[in-house]
Amino acid sequence: MLTIRIESFTKDKPALLKDAFRIRHKVFIEEQGVDKFLEYDGLDDEAVHYLVYYDDKPVCTARWRETSEGVKLERFATLKKFRGKSLASVLLRYILEELTCLRKNYICMHKFLLLVFTKLIISKKKAKNLLKLI
Question: Which position has the higher pLDDT, 51 or 124?
Fold first, then answer.
């Protein structure tokens, strides 16, 4: 049986951060051609990071951090082989629920994440079923 697990962490867990960086490097630098100086922006130390494990393999990552404009959701990346399984959607919903519990009111996100978020709201039933996997 396939299992999905999400782990949140900060800079204090360098092994997990290394896994997140590996995913981000593969997706952003190798696949999308993002300059490594833009990808590694020096803000990871102040962020809360997430890894999604699919059958105990880290395959999806994201982070959030406080800004002067509010909480910023960033660096969502899923390894190519694991795309199309709604892992980023599950992670987004998980993060949003966590931020709600932390009473973080203002959230800014990339336009693509906003589209995913809108889909989650529209298909709330589907999102709830996905969250049962966690």
Answer: 51
